[in-house]
């Protein structure tokens, strides 16, 4: 197996890189858990509003049910070398009650507005409380770039 050499980034560089990825990436893995049924993980489209990730899923999906039962979630961007893990609490907004700005940003990014669909959807909003970012073993130390909802310097 070939390894990739990296020069460890400072916290400010990692934070900048995380924010850039949140603003440009399309997919995130959302991990939820139900107290009786255990873990559940799905890839979802997301938009970033500068403070929170917004995703959308069916109102009766396992993801929506899990978030209602246990709002603590984990999210990860889909790169196993340039890792970004986020933790926070999720909040569900029925498609007809979601803030208009969040729904418009989601629709503009993906060309799809769930509010116009036949079935019921919920928007899932997660404000990160903890963010970890690293590229390979050299960056494991100092991987926390947000703690208690505050970006670290």
UniProtKB/TrEMBL annotation:
MF annotations from Gene Ontology: coenzyme F420 binding; oxidoreductase activity, acting on the CH-CH group of donors
Keywords from the named record: Oxidoreductase
Residue span(s) of domain Pyridoxamine 5'-phosphate oxidase N-terminal: 22-134
Pfam families: PNPOx_N (PF01243)
GO cellular component terms, A-Z: cytosol
Keyword Aminoacyl-tRNA synthetase: no
The protein's name in its UniProt record: General stress protein 26
Species of the source: Streptomyces capillispiralis
Organism classification: Bacteria, Bacillati, Actinomycetota, Actinomycetes, Kitasatosporales
